[in-house]
Amino acid sequence: MMSGIIIAGGRSRRFGTDKRRLRLWGEQGPCVLERAVALLQPLCSEVLVVLNDAHAWPDLPARLVADEQPGSGALGGVISGLQAMQTPTALVIAADMPVIVPTLLAALAQWPFVGDALIPSSYPHPGQLQPLLAVYRHSALAPLRRVFAAGERRLQVAVTALHWVDPGPELWQMYDPTGRSLLNLNTPDDLKLVQAYLGTTNI
């Protein structure tokens, strides 16, 4: 059994509006956060959404988890999700990655590995870890807490304290050769790129 954890902080400082509520699939379609939940539901026995404004999402079909340390970024969100999950393992994604390839997620969920985490690196240029498109075991919680307590707030740095494995380029070559799953909504320019992938200008 595996949990799904969505990191959905809610500040959208660089974007200028709440990007989680964008309806990229038309007015009758899901918003970005609803789509993230739908991606994880077929793969996970429970879906948790870590956010700072649970009161604003009363109808979201997921378990809402308050960030233990509001304002602590993605690292705090991952820690909060791992603390709250009810299974030994979690598939973790960011809410603002709207064009994740579903088969890539399914492959990550089933990929065998030894250690605390399965963390892909960027594609097609490896090197930069992608800790918000990854699988974590509960064993990752204590090391991440220690790094957080020491003052680190960067998730990409914190995960290097784990025993982690990179699935390698085979994952991307088989399931997402363009690397589109890594596109996220940080700026209005990112939105234009995502819309190009989706073939729509409807938000």
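(ticket continues) Second input and output from the same batch:
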Amino acid sequence: MDISHTHAQSQRVLRQRNLLVIVTIALGVLSVTLTLITSTRDREVILQPVLGSPLAVNSSGVSREYLELVTRDTAVLTLDRSPANLEYWMKSVLDITAPSAQGKIRADLMKIVNEQRGSSISQFFTIQSMEIDPGNLWSTVTGDLHTIVGNKVVSNERRTFRFDWQYTGLSLKLSGFGMVTTGKEKDQ
């Protein structure tokens, strides 16, 4: 009776050992598989170096914060230019332009490129204030437009520019922009 009891206990220990070996092998294979998948998979990290909080875009409309950030970047893109970057400048502005406005904006940009090509005239814009209307998809930016000839600043004028936007699907595109003229600018 002692032998049969010892034999049964040995068989139970042997089954537990075999089960433990199978579980160990399965976990080892799973670890190797996960390591291979992790090392070969493309990774995507969303970097937001200049944003104070995450932004989300949805089909219900454009948030005020998103329109403000896009306006800020578009104002800098459209109003900072020099003869050395005209081709890049024009291409970048057209990349953010709505397809329906491409022709008109391209014609306006070509006039600027043709006037400025070969000259030593550059300009940059410093933003002072911004007005945003996400409901009607427009924004205005007021600031100082600096004009430089060679290495000398020849003018520094307070100007306001309006940007009109088109929101289709989940894409915000520029549909028009230009300087806002008031009575003071017309008199000068």
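Agent notes: Residues 13 and 19 are 10 Å apart (CA to CA). Residues 1-50 form one domain. Closing as not reproducible unless the customer responds.
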